[in-house]
Amino acid sequence: MENYFKDIEKKLKEKINFEKLEIIDNSQKHKGHKFFSEEKYHLHLKIKSLYLKSISRLSAQKLIMNLLKEDLKTKIHALEISIE
Fold this sequence. Notes:
The protein is α+β, with helices and mostly antiparallel strands. Helices cover about 45% and strands about 25% of the residues. It is built from four helices and three strands, in the order H-E-E-H-H-H-E.
């Protein structure tokens, strides 16, 4: 899991300038849900970025979602994004 989070950080760093990134795994909170899968994560990304704050919230979220598009198909079930 730690290596996978490093991969996410690397993907985001290649295209986005940010000062701080915190990746929180909330998967266990969703264990009883209908579509819960041990193979997929429920993640919360907390990103501190002057760049992302300078564009619209929708544009910032679209950018992040596009960068993680393949992960959302295979490894991430749910993604919460907080931009500071």
